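A reminder from the course coordinator: this example appears on the midterm review sheet, so study it carefully.

Given structure:
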């Protein structure tokens, strides 16, 4: 059974770096899927942040690319999001997900991140 679980701090100060980890079980992150981060700000729709592929290639939303990095630890079967220079506009529920070519088929439960001093 495929499961994803986000972890990381729930509160980040403005200008700092947001760092979240997604722990994956039931499938290796080196199999043929894409491992994505998606967020939902309060009162808004889902926003795709980026992904890291099974071969380690990465791709980011153009609007967030300059502040985003996604990496992976294949030994721990985890992948990590780093978002730098955060502002209150980065406050959101952050999800990790497994993506096929067409859709995200497995999701973590989501974790609330608030950017505030």
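Designed residues:
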């Amino acid at each position: 059974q495929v499961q994803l679980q986000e972890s990381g701090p729930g509160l980040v100060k403005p200008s700092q770096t947001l760092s979240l980890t997604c722990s994956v079980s039931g499938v290796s992150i080196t199999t043929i899927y894409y491992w994505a981060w998606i967020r939902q700000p309060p009162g808004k729709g889902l926003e795709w942040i980026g992904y890291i592929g099974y071969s380690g290639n990465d791709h980011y939303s153009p609007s967030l690319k300059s502040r985003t990095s996604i990496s992976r630890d294949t030994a721990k079967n985890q992948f990590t999001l780093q978002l730098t220079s955060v502002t209150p506009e980065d406050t959101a529920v952050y999800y990790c997900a497994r993506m096929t070519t067409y859709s995200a088929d497995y999701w973590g439960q989501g974790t609330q991140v608030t950017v505030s001093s």
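The two ends are 39 Å apart (CA to CA). The mean pLDDT is 96.
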